[in-house]
Amino acid sequence: xxxPRNHLLTLLLPLALTGPLPASADNAFVTDPEAPTPSSxxxxxxxxxxxxxxxxxxxxxxxxxxxxxxxxxxFRYFIDGRHLQVGSDDVVRYTLVAQAPSGARNxxxxxxxxxxxxxxxxxxxxxxxxxxxxxxxQWQPIGDHAHERFRQELWRHHFCVPRGxxxxxxxxxxxxxxxxxAPRQNxxxxxx
Length: 192
Description:
Order of helices and strands: HEEEEEEEEHHH
Number of strands: 8
Shape: elongated
Low-confidence stretches: none
Helix content: 10-25%
Mean pLDDT: 82
């Protein structure tokens, strides 16, 4: 009977005589250097933000109050309906007025994108009847923080098409802010 050592040598000797295996033998599944790309696949267009100057200071008659699903420490929120706009870059730009219970107002000029989780950018803050632009503002995700609840509402219920991730037509935004669109129409679900 052959010893186990001699049996192993008999098995390994033919492999040693053949020399090193070619590189393609390392991965038997690679047959082409690169798979061909279908002709229907096109390079996407990279999103480019459009520069937009701040709007004029809002007039009291143009302010539309919108209510939050949950109260926010007594603040009231308004959008300047006259200067609400959707840019060619699909950014919804608006002037927001946040009024404290004391009557003091904070104004900001912001942009909102209807991405799957929503992003926003604050371009300027209002002070002494004019807007002061920020240096290099950045897009931020809309958070779940209580102080950002108004942005969640604007993104979810007023400015964006539910599950479409595109801005609503401006007239529908205004109707929604004014409460003329029922909550079920804003939910993205079919009505009964």
